[in-house]
Fold each of these.
Amino acid sequence: MAGGQERILRRRIKSVQSTKKITKAMELIAASRIVKAMARISAARPYYEELVGVVRDLSASSGLPKSVFLGEPPVADKKGILAITADRTLCGAYNSSVLRAAEKQVQSFSKAGKGLFLVAVGRRANSYLKYRGVAIEASFVGMTDRPTYDDAREIAAPILAAYESGQVESFDIISNRFYSAGNQQLEVTQLLPLDPAKFGSRENAQSFDFEIEPSPEAIIDPLLRMFVEETIFAILLEASAAEHAARQRAMKAASDNAEELIKTLSRIMNRARQDSITTEITEIVGGAEALGAGSKVIDESFLLTYSNRENASA
Amino acid sequence: MANTFPFSLVTPERTLLKGDATMVILRTGGGDIAFMAGHAPFIGSIEPCVMTVTLADGATSRAAVHAGFVHVANSVVRVLADIAELPDDIDVERARRAKSRAEEKLINSNDASAEAALRRAHARLELAGVRDSIK
């Protein structure tokens, strides 16, 4: 029966509408968080620039002292990866692109005969990689929404320890980078060893004869440790902004699709309703016609007999 | 009026203090040091301490700085601290608890991290103006 189909469609439209309400809300939340995340990126920038300035001036005045963090990587049988994903899904390809890239890296390591030292950030990376039997050295969850410097410090601790003890020869960060609200890209950044070119050349230095207390050799390692923490912090902030942007886009697409689906379903439902009305009218008209036609036949026969009677009497 | 110089206290998450100052006092790896306008270029690591900044208008600002670096170039003083707090941000109760915890640990051992924690707690309590902070 036509009415039954109409009822089913009405129910589906209602469910799509409530889904759309949810996705719309998530879209708006993500949009407001992008703005906050961007503000945090720009609030964190002065510190990064100052830190780079300190290292640059230090190297300009006395030449960079030897440090395990700089230059030639130590020889070790492991390479490190820091994979940064989100805790939650519903953000398009944000998580899967990181995980795919991480898996590719892992394969290339094993081809080169290197072991893996994996640090995972975000529930997604943790569960995905664990399920595939990849050993995770350290895992951090519950911080990607709004990363703090303390989080960065916690993440840096096992990385620095592994690197300084000579367990790993390098560390790469795989994460999404935020370029603009419409453009986020997967990026692999080399974290360790640090590239001295990052700190700029001597020509940019503000002065050459710095007093250094207590001594260049004593401050270089803590300084570079701070720099590693800060790099991780900056990348976490970028990743968090990228996550919110990706989620906003995914949820906008979902809301648009829901809108489209509602339109299509409403059209089908209206057609079904019209069909059922048309059928009903046709049935009524048909019935009425059948009744009307029946009485006409009687009338005609009556007329016929009547005229026959007239004729006869004439 | 004394000469002033631009000063900033920057932490990873935000810039805590910024402005023109006439004097900055803090503790580096080599001991307490005061910076005034025209100081020679300087890079030093910071020990946990209470930093005192005399601003151009004569007012003083204080902040607990726990680790980081001070960088002086072209008569601009920048303090980079990975942990720094203004007086209003300090939780006295928490600092007291941290202090007694660190002291307990230090009775039996010579733990560097406990000692650092104790010095941080001292700096916090000193900044909060608690009298019994340093025994």
Note: The two ends of chain A are 58 Å apart (CA to CA).
Amino acid sequence: MAKITFENLAHSYLADPTSPEDYALKELNHDWVDGEAYALLGSSGCGKSTLLNIISGLLSPSQGRILFNDVDVTEAPTAERNIAQVFQFPVVYDTMTVRDNLAFLLRNRGADPTYVAQRVNQVAKMIGIEEELNRKARGLTADVKQKISLGRGMVREDVNALLFDEPLTVIDPHLKWELRTQLKALHHEFGHTMIYVTHDQTEALTFADKVVVMYDGRVVQMGTPEELFERPQHTFVGYFIGSPGMNVLGATVNDSSAMVAGHEIALGRSYGAPTGKVELGIRPEFVRISTEGPGLPARIRRVEDVGRHKIVRLEVGAEKLDAIVGEGVSVPADGAVVSFDPAAINIYSNDWRVAPKGEVAA
Amino acid sequence: MNKTVNQKAWFLILPVLILVGFSAVIPLMTVVNYSIQDTFGNNVFFPAGLDWFRDTLQSDRMWSSLRRQLTFSAIILAIEIPLGIFIALNMPKGGFWASFCLVMMSLPLLIPWNVVGTIWQIFGRVDIGLLGHTLARMGIDYNYTQDALDAWFTLVLMDVWHWTSLVALLAYAGLRSIPDAYYQAAKIDQASRWKVFRYIELPKMQGVLMIAILLRFMDSFMIYTEPFVVTGGGPGSATNFLSIDLVNVALGQMDLGPAAAYSIMYYLVILLISYVFYTVMINLDKRDGMK
């Protein structure tokens, strides 16, 4: 188990990168705490797999260093890093039995046979595949194969980190939930540092202590699920997390009030006078709809009933706005007025969040 | 869906039946016909029962040809399969050189059999052939027309030159289909190069290798043109393979009855072996399919 440190880390797949656009992974400085579960979340091509491959040593970064427990491993080959990786598609050694699969690494290291036998049984118990130990790995179901890949990593007691590269892609939905729960339980019990790459926000939010949201090769925010929900640091985080995502409306902000579509909205906090492209972000959960009273006049386009609540699609001026209302709330047929919970409003300048005066930096 | 029963539909496949009849069944039946009849000329035939089959099975000449044939197939399989895998493992993974290698390796496969035979017939000649003359100048006593061992050496070398590419190309295709994740996992598991081959590459190549073995076995078991052009079965009968022996019986001696019995048994042996291979391959697929 290890603390993972990134120092000025960046990677480009081009031989001679010049502009920031050439970098698949833009400069990164972070400390990842030992024993925490991290989820790397982002859409395809955002650089999350690049980062994972740099951690596992399959890729050598163009610049910067990566340290495990303050030891520089930037140039260390994968074999020496003591990491375990579970891939998108199950990777098992088909012709071997499950037992031999688990023992493979220890035998490659020339470990003592009695230790190997004992350790394999121990790991099989941890991941719950004792029943299958003597079966050939070929012909097992995808979820058991993924458990074997995980187990192959966990047999080493000096494992630095467990890496997961979208491991649930090929698993049936009902087993997904079970496997994820099991992963969390393993994490609680054994405290491995876990890094989990996914583009599924539910997976990331339920699995991780810290979610690292990546966008266009950059880590845009790293925080707990609550932080991502309440204080998205970037408009991308706002609409990538949440279903539907955060509403982002063009606005002009002057100190503690904002003008949206010609109407004034009180912000409750002071933002000074942000410049550039200024936007107001509000999650659909905090949008209230009424027939009259103060607020923004809006036009209802569509109502989607998803069972637990209703999603109301509205239009404010030329911009689209989503709201979530309870099942029991009746939605006016036309001429609705929307208002926002001031505490849930975030202000963005050029897509990055502007901290209100007096807020303690997270 | 309800299907109406209409036996007239059989007429729709009649053209195919007629074509297959003319192309396969009728010629084959002629052979069957010859194998159970005898004649003293004048196109008058009388039944001979299974005499020709009995004669052929008791013929030492046939058995020694079969032994030679099996030895030849075993030798070329033992060389071409490992060599083909070795070449495939060392080929470039992509880019210009991969295409270049693929094209260069396909060249021998495109040369007609009798041309291959002629090339090696000349190549191995002591007086004008590059190989034969060079060996002779180096003081090595090499003459494929007089020495049985040299003749075998030439034929095996020729077959390896002609067909190893096929095995290599198949193995290469099998290797390219292995996802990178397997190699990455092996790195993480600190597997040696040998173990990567033994536990990842070989199992993943199993299917294509079965096809390669089947094709090479059948082809080498039926080989005719190349040894006929190079050695003509000689020296003596040292390279008299089954097909050469069969042609000698049929066309050399005009013994149509024994030759027909001979070819039917030859055909059945190949059919049997192909069936065994086919069954094994299907079972492999089934085992893979049960995921």
Note: The longest helix of chain A spans residues 173-190.
